[in-house]
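Now for a sample.
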Amino acid sequence: MILGLLSDIFDGIIARRLNVSSPMLRRLDSGVDQFFWLSIVAGCYITCPQFFKDNLLKISLLVAMEAGCYAISYIRFGKEVATHAISSKFWTLVLLATMIQVTVSCSSVILFNICFYLGIATRIEIIGMLLIIKEWTNDIPTIYHAFLIRNGKEITRHKLFNG
């Protein structure tokens, strides 16, 4: 899991350093990220099905929110989500820690709850971004930046995160 996350982090950094990052590449990266996390969740489910049964409501809500992000993006723009929001990057780190804890102990209470609420907050932010921007845009750091983009203003991008 850790190696997969590290490769996900560094593939974007390397692509930006080599100036080969493009909107299509960012869209593909988002799709691969989804597959990566679905694979981890499937593996955790096989190993610890009771954890998923005990937390079915929260997990279902997270999945529904993620699906909502994709639905809104497809309905509005005909493309999948590729905001790569900074808050989502932090959520990914908490998600990784949660999945490691679940894999090791088949249990997670405090970390899972942090992961759940942070996941909901980041999905709400992404939905907000998708409703604010006028046309599909990748690499939107925050909802504040979505307002700037909507108003035709340039945004400052960080080379490591979204640039």
Q: What stands out?
A: The mean pLDDT is 91. Residues 77 and 136 are 6 Å apart (CA to CA).
